[in-house]
Amino acid sequence: MKIYSGFLGHQRYKYIIKEFKNNEYVPDIKLSQPHLCKESGMVRVNGDFDLIEFWDFGLPVNDTPFIAHYESTSAIFWHESIKDKELRNKITNIKMKLLESKNCKAIICCSKYAKNKALGKLPPKVAEKVLNLNVGIPEPPNKKNNNIDEIRLIFVGNGFERKGGDILLEAFDELSKKFKNLKLTIFSNFDYKNHFLFDKENLKDEYLKIIGKNKNIELIMNSNPFYSEKGYCNANIFVFPTLLENFGIVVTEAMAYGLPVVTTAIGGVTEQVENGINGFLISPFNERIGKDFPTFGTKKERYKPYIKNKIIEKVTKLIENPSLMKNMGNTNIETWKKKFHIDKRIEIMKYIYDNVLEDSYDVSRLKEKVKEVYN
């Protein structure tokens, strides 16, 4: 079997694919970054392949069996921003025909949250192909440093303000006055071009100035997982006050390293963190935060003080209770092994590769296999 794996969007999915390529069960996979039609998000793949996979964005128009891995429904409907209604409807009709066709074998979402959003927008014949398959994280290459003489918080995420990085900066300013041994490591590329929360062009410079003045903050301008591994190893607590999230794969990474998590109760994050068990969920909002987008940049101020104070409260509780910090971290390792270990994902993908081209293939059997593996 020859597979084309078209990769766009989330860099963190790359190591999942690379792990498949290194696995003895995986057939020939060509990993490539195709050039999409900017308006429609569709592409014609060149070459002779038995199966096409698309990760995060894109929809192949080839007459070839395909699987779509989507982080969110925006990957399917990103053409909805086109102002020309006739063109917009035409693209929608083409996409729905592709997804309804026998060539579309499965639409795999990274979280139950993303799956439910997809089910709410897709017609019945397409919706029946939608399933949730947990992200898989490989075994951490290095062990976490358990030194608590110096407490280090870690934040990982591009789209710094959308992920709540600015709120964390304010919280850290107060926390560092209380705990003199407190450090913060930030992994972010600070690329704001594609994020819509900024009201001013100079916000990037303002944040960099704040970070530069504090000797206890380390900024690494890259959130690629191959760079952030060392950061996880040297950290004690993962803080991620994100404001919009379909899953939050960085939370899963932190769990694999045994870090307690302080985050917001938004989207698929709540499928990973159980409040008070393996971390703390801050819940100042619910679905309203999604409804506020894309004007959320002007409304964010109403949420910031509450989130900031909760970060201070929960981080303080963890620092002052080392046993709680350790227990939550250990619980996260067990949760990762049970729900998010890459071996489970590989088992499902092996089942797909072995069966997807057979006449007897049925997506309902795939869904049963997912239940079997994760129960």
Instruction: Tell the overall outline.
Output: globular
Number of helices: 14
CATH topology of the largest domain: Rossmann fold
Given the helix and strand composition, which structural class is it? alpha/beta
- C-alpha Rg (nearest Å): 21 Å
- N- to C-terminal distance: 29 Å
Can I get a quick summary?
With 375 residues, the protein is of the alpha/beta class.
If you had to describe this structure to a student in words, what would you say it looks like?
It contains 14 helices and 14 strands. The chain has 375 residues and is α/β, with parallel strands linked by helices. The protein starts with a strand and ends with a helix. The protein has a 6-stranded parallel sheet with strand order 2-1-4-6-7-8, sandwiched between helices. Strands 11-10-9-12-13-14 form a 6-stranded parallel sheet, sandwiched between helices. Helix 5 packs across helix 11, helix 8 crosses helix 12 and helix 13 (342-355) runs antiparallel to helix 14 (363-374). The protein folds into 2 domains: 2-136 and 342-374; 151-339, Glycogen Phosphorylase B (Rossmann fold). The chain is globular.
